[in-house]
Structure formats: C-alpha cells, structure tokens
Amino acid sequence: MKKILGFLLVLGAASFVGGCGSQEPASEDAAVPSAEPIRRLDTVLESKSGSELTGIAMFIQDSAGVSLQLNIENSPPGEHAVHIHEIGDCSADDASSAGGHWNPTVEDHGKWGEAPHHLGDVGNITVGEDGMGALSLTTDRWTLGGGADNDIYGKAIIVHADPDDFTSQPTGAAGGRIGCAVIQQP
Q1: How many helices and strands (H and E) does the chain possess?
Q2: Cis (ω within 30 of 0) for the bond into 76?
Q3: What is the pLDDT of residues 109-145, one digit of tens each?
Q4: Which residues contact 127 (CB under 8 A, 6 or more apart)?
Q5: Which domains does the chain have, with CATH numbers?
Q6: For 40-67, how does the pLDDT look when each residue is reduced to its tens digit (9 = 90+)?
Q7: How far apart are CA 110 and CA 119, in angstroms?
Q8: What integer pLDDT is reported at residue 36 of this predicted model?
Q9: In which band, very low, low, confident or very high, does the pLDDT at 186 lie, cut at 50, 70 and 90?
Q10: What global pTM score does this model have?
Q11: Contacts of residue 9, Cβ cutoff 8 Å, sequence gap at least 6
Q12: Cα gap 58→68, rounded to integer Å
C-alpha cells in the first residue's frame, strides 16, 4: 500500500508542478512525456457464509500493469486463500454465484508466479489475531477494462475460509467463501 500511496503522491505532485507553469518556454525539441491514463477501482468485500469479514480491494492500472491491494478485517486469524472468480456476482449467501476460479488461459490450479496457475490464483492472505490482514500483488497479466480475455472487470474477488494448498485441483482446497466483492467498471 505504501508503494501505491507513494505513486499517487508522486503523480499528484507532478500534476501540481505541471500546472504551475515555468519561467522559460519549452523548446520545440523538448520531449513532452505522454501521461498514460491510470485506472483505479475500489470495491468493498461483503461478508459471506456467516462470517463477519469486511474489507476493501483496491485495483490500480498504470504502465506497469495492475496492482491489487487487499485489506480485510473481522476475519478469523490464519491464512485464507484469495482468488478471482469468473462471475461478478456476490448475491448468494455463500458466494457460490461467483462461479469457479477465473481461468481464461485454461491452466491447472497452482501458485501465482509458478507454472501452471489460473490468472485468478492470487495467493494466501495472512490474518493476525486482531482479525486484520493485507495482501499486495502487481501483474502485467491483468487489465482493468478493454474487454480482452485478461480483463478483470465483471469478475469477483473471493476470500476463502482456508488457505490455498496450491496443488488440489481445481480449487486448492480453499474451503468456503467468507468474503466477496464484484470487480465492476465504475
């Protein structure tokens, strides 16, 4: 989160400085950096399966890819699997309406960063005795928008009751779904 906040502060400072004007006119030969649009989406996790879990998943897309910062609270302590699921629907009490893991590359379930794995195999979040946990991931394998196979809009982010064992097919033996949020285009 510090990396994301730092980036946003730098971006804000650059916008402020750029808006102040300059003492000397820019030469015609000076390269003007083009600003790539940044997309940001904050989505709120709902409690599911009788849990009290709450949290926020923040997605930011920039030239490096998509960054996820997940912060949860009121969760049982320990490790919990986090996955992106194929359907952006959290309406069922147990979040089963979100379908299975998002897997546009049709690979076996596994651990992020090791082949094979689903694009929805995010990893495990560690929750302390205070019920709070955080997880960060940055990847160039996702997009926010554009409609390509790797677009995460229209999907759901799920926090599971158990940790992902990274081997059991197709779910990693992650257990029930205790938190859910829809990743939808604003």
Answers
A1: 1, 8
A2: no
A3: 999 989 999 999 999 999 999 999 999 999 999 999 9
A4: 72, 75, 76, 77, 78, 79, 80, 133
A5: 37-183 (2.60.40.200)
A6: 999 999 999 999 999 999 999 998 899 9
A7: 10
A8: 59
A9: confident
A10: 0.80
A11: none
A12: 6
User: Is 2 a residue whose pLDDT tops 50?
Assistant: no
Contact 119, 101 (CB under 8 A): no
CA 174 – CA 168 distance, rounded (Å):
9
Q: Helix, strand, or coil here: 166?
A: coil
**Is residue 29 helix, strand or coil?**
coil
Distance from C-alpha of 173 to C-alpha of 160, rounded to nearest angstrom = 10
Q: Which amino acid, residue 150?
A: N
Q: Is 157 in contact with 181 (CB distance < 8 Å)?
A: yes
